[in-house]
Structure formats: C-alpha cells, structure tokens
Design a protein that fits this description.
Length: 504
C-alpha cells in the first residue's frame, strides 16, 4: 500500500497552484526545548493552509466530462478555499455548501477565489447532506475534504519536501490530525523511504478521533467534538486514512486548549505569524512530548498547517496562552475585610507580577479575591506560590485548571453589594511595570476600606484599575488631595450608570 501512495505522491500535480513551503528553524523554541525544532510553514500557501494540495490534486484527476459538470464540496473552513482556488485554476465551476453559521471571513475567502457559496443548515452535517443532494441532482463531482486517495497523495507532497529539505538527522515529525489526510499522506511517504523517523499525530483532547480509533483497533465515532480547533473538529477518522495510520503511525497524543494557545504564541514569537488553533497542534505536541520523554539534541519537525483564524478569537488565545505555558496561576484567596489587607496580600506575593485582581465586598468579616499571578514552570512553579501563601496564613484555592473559573468566573466577579455604605468609585491608570500594582496600593494606603477592585494586565503600556472605597461623606472633600498625591490619572465614576445598574 505504501508504495502505491508514494508513486501517487511523486506524480501529484500540486505545484500548478501550491508552493513549496520553507522548513523554518524555530530558534527560540529550539533553545528552550534543547532540541532542534523546525516548522513546516504550510500557513504560507496561497489559501493559508495545506488543503490546497489535496484539493488541487483531486480536481486535476477529473475527466473532461466531470470538469465540465463542475465540482461541489461541503466545508466551513480550509478545504472550501482550497477547492475554490483549485477549480478556478483549472477553469472549473465550484460550489461550496457552508453552514449558515460560517464566519464571514471564510465565506468571503471562497467567493474571492471564484467559488459559489450556498449557505445551508446550522451545522456541518446539514451542509454535507445538502451538498451530496446537489451533486446527485446536478451531476457535480463531490470532492471530499480528506477521505480520498488523491487528496491523501496531494497532502503527502508535504513529506516529500520535508525529506528533501532535511536530508540529515530527522527524528520525528509531528502532524495535526482532523480527518487524517495530512498524516496519512506524510506517513505513507516517510515510512516507505525512512521508516526510522517517527510520525506522531497531535489532536485536541476533545477531538481525538484518531487516538480513539488506534486504541479501539477500528474507526470510532466521537459522541461530540470540541470546536476551539475548528480545523480538526472531526468525529471520525477517514477510512482510507485509517488504513494507513493504524499500522504505521507511531503514536497519537492530545493537547489542551491552553496548550494550543501557548503554541500559537510560541510560533508567533519565532516567526511573527499568527497560526490558527489547528495549525499550532504540532508545536503543542512537540512541547508535551519533549517534556514527557526528556528528549535532548533531537531534530523534530512540526507541521504549521494553517493560518485561517478569525481576528476576534485572538483575545481568547492571548488570555489562555500564559496558562498553557504554565506562566500564570489563577487562584482564589481569602483575606480579612479591613483596610490594608490588599497591601499585605501583595507583600506576601513578593516580586511576582500580579496579572489580574478581582474583588467585590461581600461581608464585613472576610473578602474573597480572584487573582492571577505570573509564575514560571521551572524557576517559580505555581505550587510554590500556593504553598508560600498558605504558609503565611492565606487560605488559597488553586483554580488554574478550573474551566469554569477561566472561562466565566474571572469575568463575573462582582455584582451588587447592598451592605456597602458611603461607596465611591474611581478609575485609575498607571505605568505598567513589575510591582506597579503593589506601588499603587502602597500609595493608596489603608486610609479607606476598599470594597471593589478590578485589575487586569493586558500587556499594554498603562495598567488600568477600577476601585471602590468606603469614604464617609464628611471625608469626601479629602479625596482629590489624596489621589493627586498618588500621582496617577483618575476619573470619578461614582455616578456612572453602568456602575449603578450592575455594581452599585
């Protein structure tokens, strides 16, 4: 079987439209991990994804009659854009059925490459059923996204380039897995020519269809799949793909959403390019594998498979990347409800950077605060932080692995506080640097009780704080002088309608 695929790969016609992408050294990752890390930059393809290879190779095999009839596919992502460009290159009409929920970025990507978009259904299965119906009614050729020998052969040209670009030491290739055409094509080529090179698949831990199939010895259907890495959100590995993978893939590992986000940041740091979640799977897998195996001085290739990410998702990626890198701990801490408690807590934190601080007054005895603290996986792990705080008498709950806390609680700490009297609310800005929050609290002093506090370090030049204080009416006139002495810009928000409606 492998020999047949190698012949198909060697004769694939992908370079009529695809480009040979570079195998780029990831210098910072290499230094950190103690192994040579090389990135196969498939995000540099004309459609920002490897999918153009398989789509074009499949369409190029059509007969003249089939070409005249046109092609159709169901896709909400990279296959759609790849097929649209491939068909346009060959002068073939392409119809892409996409769910109505498809982001506008991807719809426009198909249209800009000459494809006709048909929006149908709210999810992929409905779009797929409609595409197959149209193919039967109108005589279109259905082009599958992954489960097809010609598609597999087209994706296999990635491996052909890797072995040519890295003819010397090469210990393992890490491949993102969705439906499986990319890993099947790479596996067929590499294991036939250089079987000593390990092929390791990487999947999200909530979309692990190949790992589940390998464990069961047969294809299985996942009851549900996670959507964060939407490019690999597939419930069942392709049949043709599994026929190759079950005997020749060395291992499949899974990674978390936080680990994927950290890998997106790693790739950005090394290449100044932004990868989609599915495209960062290989790097996330490399990091996890190296740590698990204690590897040193190996040559490892990660397939950077695509860069079709919606801009509005970057906020979530940035928020979670530090957690995935184990450089931030999310904790809940109980402190006494009295002036100076915040300052004492910051002193207990020491020189660690506080990345987030959420608090709202609840009772007159104790306060529960939600805190983000910068850590380091080696020099200052989060467990050391937790133990240090507990040793100083602070009850601590570690929420770093708590999905509810990371997704929702951190944004909803607050609410009305009926028991608070004489509350005034101010916004502050101060230069963001290590220790800035402690300096702010130190200057604010313990003069008035803090009843609400919100701070989040966003990596900007200025730190932003929302603070509420209990200030008796007879002392209100002292506020301007006290705040002017702090030296930071501030704004009185006590009469802000948003505060009154949700927090006052």
């Amino acid at each position: 079987m492998l020999e047949q695929y190698v012949k198909k790969i060697l004769t694939s016609r992908v370079y009529d439209v695809a480009v040979e992408t570079p195998l780029q050294p990831a210098r910072q990752l290499t230094e950190r991990l103690g192994n040579q890390i090389l990135l196969k930059r498939e995000d540099l393809q004309p459609v920002y994804s490897f999918k153009i290879r398989g789509a074009y190779n499949r369409v190029a095999q059509l007969s003249d009659v089939e070409k005249a009839q046109g092609v159709i596919a169901a896709s909400a992502g990279n296959h759609a854009q790849g097929l649209a460009l491939a068909a346009a290159k060959l002068g073939i009409k392409a119809t892409i059925v996409m769910p109505r929920t498809t982001p506008e970025l991807k719809i426009q990507g198909v249209r800009s490459r000459g494809g006709k978009v048909v929006l149908h259904g709210d999810a992929f299965p409905e779009a797929l059923a409609h595409a197959l119906k149209l193919a039967e009614e109108k005589g279109y050729t259905f082009v599958p996204p992954y489960d097809d020998p010609d598609v597999i052969a087209g994706q296999g040209t990635v491996a052909m380039e890797i072995l040519r670009q890295q003819p010397g030491q090469l210990d393992a290739i890490f491949v993102p897995v969705g439906g499986g055409s990319l890993i099947a094509g790479i596996t067929a080529y590499v294991k036939y020519l250089r079987p000593n090179i390990k092929i390791i698949g990487v999947e999200p831990d909530d979309s692990n269809c190949l790992q589940a199939a390998m464990a069961a010895g047969e294809r299985v259907v996942l009851s549900q799949v996670g959507l964060f890495a939407d490019g690999v959100a597939v419930a069942q590995i392709g049949k043709h793909n599994f026929d190759i993978c079950k005997d020749h893939v060395d291992e499949v590992i899974t990674v978390s959403t936080d680990e994927i986000c950290a890998a997106i940041k790693d790739i950005y740091d090394d290449t100044r390019s932004i990868t989609e979640p599915a495209g960062a799977l290989a790097v996330a897998g490399i990091k996890k594998y190296v740590e698990r195996e204690g590897l040193r001085d190996k040559v490892l290739v990660g397939i950077d498979s695509g860069a079709n990410i919606n801009f509005d998702r970057l906020r979530h990626v940035a928020e979670r990347s530090e957690l995935g890198e184990k450089r931030e701990a999310i904790i809940a801490v109980t402190i006494p409800e009295r002036p100076g408690s915040f300052k004492a807590f910051c002193e207990a934190i020491g020189k660690r950077q506080i990345t987030e601080f959420n608090y709202r007054y609840h009772t007159d005895r104790e306060a529960h605060i939600f805190v983000g603290v910068q850590t380091h996986p080696e020099n200052d792990p989060r467990q050391a932080l937790v133990e240090n705080l507990r040793s100083q008498g602070f009850p601590v709950l570690d929420l770093t692995d708590n999905e509810l806390a990371k997704l929702h609680i951190r944004h909803t700490v607050g609410g009305h506080a009926a028991a608070v009297a004489d509350e005034v609310v101010f916004r502050f800005e101060f230069p963001e640097r290590p220790g800035a929050l402690f300096n702010f609290l130190n200057r604010l002093g313990g003069r008035w009780n803090i009843t609400m506090f919100h701070y989040r370090n966003h990596g900007a030049a200025d730190g932003r704080v929302l603070a509420a204080l209990q200030v008796p009416a007879e002392e209100r006139e002292q506020i301007p002088a006290a705040f002017d002495a702090i030296g930071y810009p501030y704004w009185d928000e006590t009469d802000n309608p948003a505060y009154k409606l949700f927090l006052g």
